[in-house]
Amino acid sequence: MSHVRAPFRILSRPPLVLGASGRIGRALRHRLGADAALWQARRAQAGAGWCLFDPLSDPEALTAAAGAAGQILCLAGPVPGRGGGDLRDTIALGEAAVRAGAALGGRVLLASSAAIYGAQTGPLHEDLAPRPANAYGQAKAEMEARAQDLGRELGVAVCCLRVGNVAGFDAILGGWRPGFRLDQFADGRTPRRSYIGALTLADVLGALLALPELPPMLNIAQPGPVEMGALLRAAGRDYATAPAPETAIAEVALDVSRLTGFLAPELALPAADPAVMWAEFAQLEPHMKDETAP
């Protein structure tokens, strides 16, 4: 496959990754290696380097783990359709991460979501006001606002990462089943959305952790929207089409110019390519088999 991995710079003090047993955390651990970070989970995991505690019910353990870290990457939080969970925990986890960041004197990166933009059409840039269209997006938007306010209060630099669709972790490629159907618009195309490959996402996170400064908000995706049908075809997945309803949105594209600018010293972000993104997921998938909830 043509994806080029960014070299990960080993940091003098490793980051603490909260929610590391989830899908993105496992991709990051696979990509960077077990020694690259302190990996938090709530239950025992295979391999070395795990810190086992619940960040919400055991804040003392969170503070202790953060004491050995240089910064915090919070990937923890309930995901729609994957075991439920209280969406309000999204906000509580963000605030807990910021408080731990204040204790260690380091910055905090929080995994947010492009869902905060709701049904707005692209290109969507970070200065747009959030207009979430569902409860998940609303929880992420509130987490961002509360975490940024708390960060200013406590003197903690906070960067919210608005992650787009991750190929293989999404509702299209990841949720494919026989009989899958996509909307088709008058031009013959299926919906187009901003995507990022799973391994490319891990490379981006590794590069961001190595940068000395980050902005308060960053969109995380590869340049150029991807047609959902093209992604399924690249994976060899059959699908049917149905005329798109009037309420369907043909394209939602994240503006990633800010991201590419910040990444430039560490990583050249490749344009979105369905075949490469599928290959990344196929390479990673065997390492996700023992996944447990964070």
UniProtKB/TrEMBL annotation:
Pfam families, alphabetized: Epimerase (PF01370)
InterPro entries from the UniProt entry: Epimerase_deHydtase (IPR001509), NAD(P)-bd_dom_sf (IPR036291)
Organism: Ruegeria sp. PR1b
Assigned keywords, A-Z: Plasmid
UniProt KW Oxidoreductase keyword: no
Classification via Gene3D superfamilies: NAD(P)-binding Rossmann-like Domain
Any coiled-coil regions, as ranges: none
Protein name stated in the entry: RB145
Domain NAD-dependent epimerase/dehydratase: 16-168
The keyword DNA-binding is annotated on this UniProt entry: no
